[in-house]
Amino acid sequence: MGQWLIDAITPCAAELGVELVPVALADLNLPFLDEEEHPSSGIYRQEHTRRWSSIVDTADGFIVVTPEYNYGMPATLKNALDYLGREWAWKPIGFVSYGNTSAGTRSVQHAKQVVTTLRLVPLGATVAIRIGDALDDGRLRPDAARDAASLGLLNELVRVSHALRPMRERAGAGTVAGPVPGSYARRLTPDDAPEVTVLQRCCWVEEAVVNDTLAIPALHESLEQVREWLADQHTTGVWLDGRLLGMVRTRRAGTDWHVGRLAVVPDLRGHGLGRWLLRTAEAAADPGIRRIVLFTGSNSQRNINLYHSEGYELVPSTSTDGTALLTKDAEPTPKHRHSRLGENARS
Ligand SMILES: Cc1cc2nc3c(=O)[nH]c(=O)nc-3n(C[C@H](O)[C@H](O)[C@H](O)COP(=O)(O)O)c2cc1C
């Protein structure tokens, strides 16, 4: 059954950019749960637990292929689920079941009510195989409807996995608590380009109005251009329930630390997000940086006020392109610097 599933969904997985990692519970050699601490502690003394933890931790979703034993899931599956805790949380789980009269569906019903305790999210799509109807000489007979059902399962798994990503990230590595309750911050990646493009167009429309110009790169950049700079430049984003609330971009130029693309969604202005992002950007300055540098529109009084209140001075400029340059001296002893977000984040 497992091999049929892999063959059936591999081409679709490749199109979706999904890596499939087949795992046979029998190969894991997990004894009946033999850890002393509760799995929610994440304290694992046994090598087999650490190995299993690492496999589950790196996955973004699961498809379980399971038979039915006495109207329930096999003890091996229950045991494998019981071994771990947070590694399962906020990941979708789909089932391919097999059995006699019920085609394994009672096993799935049993598993579903167990997995929700672990914050696994069971899918609605299922594939259920009645052994008597599906096998010829012990081999699965080809069945286009079953193949199609497996693709439906994979598609739903991927969609739900994307939708649950904010829930997984919130507690995950590479994130810190954000300034708004429930929010978190992390380094942005090229995959965040759609949200970044929307945020910057929305924010820089106001800049265009107050400065009476459309010559602002943030207003015109394509999704592809945004993807490119997100790959190269360190950008921090604040998220809440899957929504990008704000961002800031930093880069080094000699002994200057350039802070740019500071943006906050219009409905959450005045909640300290901009100030928090600015301070985060400053705190990430490399050693040896002498000056923090940023630009804004000459008429962007709201921005200029924020920067003044954070210690920046306007540099008298001969520039005629409508931008104002503001600078402040970098902290001489970067003792309390935060580590840069995303440096140890999962990709
Ligand atoms: C202990 C045991 C209990 C079973 N209970 C059920 C059952 O409740 N319902 C069912 O449809 N099949 C039941 N079966 C049949 C299995 O689902 C079927 O034999 C299946 O092929 C076993 O898969 P496996 O060889 O991968 O363990 C049971 C089999 C065993 C060994």
Automatic annotation (TrEMBL):
Residues 318-347 are annotated as: Disordered. It comes from Micromonospora parva. This is GNAT family N-acetyltransferase. Residues 183-331 form the N-acetyltransferase domain. It comes from the Bacteria. InterPro entries: Acyl_CoA_acyltransferase, Flavoprotein-like_sf, FMN_Rdtase-like_dom, GNAT_dom, NAD(P)H-dep_reductase. GO terms for molecular function: acyltransferase activity. Its EC number is 2.3.1.-. Residues 328-347 have a biased composition (Basic and acidic residues). Transmembrane segments: none annotated. Keywords: Acyltransferase, Transferase. It holds the Pfam family Acetyltransf_1.
